[in-house]
Amino acid sequence: MPRSAAENLLRILLSDRKPFSRGAFDLPQHRWLPTLLQCSRQFRIPDYTEPFEFSTSRVRFARVGGEEPSMPTTSQIPNQVFVGLPWKNVKRKWENAIDRLKIRSPLVFVIVGRDDIQDARDLLDLIKLRMDSSSYAIFDATAGNANVSLEYGYAEARDIKRALYISAHKASQKAKDQPIISDLAGKTRQQYKNEPALKRLLGAFSASHPYTKRFESFLDQRFRGNPKGEKKRLRSLALKVIHSCDGNKSVRREDVIQQLLGDVSHYSRTEVDSMIKELHKAGLIYSKRGRYSTM
């Protein structure tokens, strides 16, 4: 894209005009948001820096030398991974792989879609909120989905650690769109042909994630001398304590304890309370004590 075209496009997006009248999703410009970011860096367009916010109609930029608007204050959840994917063809594979991985991984994979909220503007805000609070983001670019391109562009602008996946299965590629959006074509990506292959990729991703490494180190150091059967039981308890917080900013400590007391593994209150303390001490969760204590 030539410099003049890039400048003109950026200024249209920054203006109050709304040249694209469609809804918050499937906007045509979603396909080339990453290209816009590349052009702004390449040409060093004056008066503008990196984008700090994506809205439904335009990209907002902070002006150089001016007062930068306040950023959203969202605390990062260290074991949360955002997943952006097309809802056709691959969604069920991802859900099955994630459910299977949850049994042995401390990571929580978050998929946001229209089942969560119906209004397109609110849905985009929820996606941004989940992505901003995640330690990593994974995007499935199968069938060239425009919404995935938008989400990837947002993650790139926010400098969120990210990975790109794509299904190599022929049935998944049978779509009217391009196999992969041109803006993402040059990005390094992981390919999978079927659900078992996706499970292996996510398993390898989980094992290399910093939170997983800290979790495994905690188990090894804390329960090194315990019998094998007890190690397995305590590992399962630790995972259940961590996953009791999935999808929530905080939960009542007593609710977590009561939930685990009713678990099929028949944990004692002492076991559960001790595990919460140990995980807190290791920095894997944050727990407050008191009458209305939360995690």
Indicate the topology.
Layout: H1 3-14, H2 33-43, E1 51-54, E2 59-61, E3 77-84, H3 91-102, E4 108-111, H4 120-132, E5 134-140, H5 146-157, E6 162-167, H6 170-173, E7 189-192, H7 195-208, H8 210-222, H9 228-243, H10 253-261, H11 269-281
Description:
There is one protein chain. The chain is α/β, with parallel strands linked by helices. It folds into 3 domains: 59 residues, no CATH class; 132 residues, Rossmann fold (3-Layer(aba) Sandwich), CATH 3.40.50.450; 72 residues. Strand 5, helix 5 and strand 6 form a beta-alpha-beta unit. Helix 1 packs across helix 2, helix 3 crosses helix 7 and helix 9 crosses helix 11. The radius of gyration is 22 Å and the shape is globular. About 19% of the residues have low confidence.
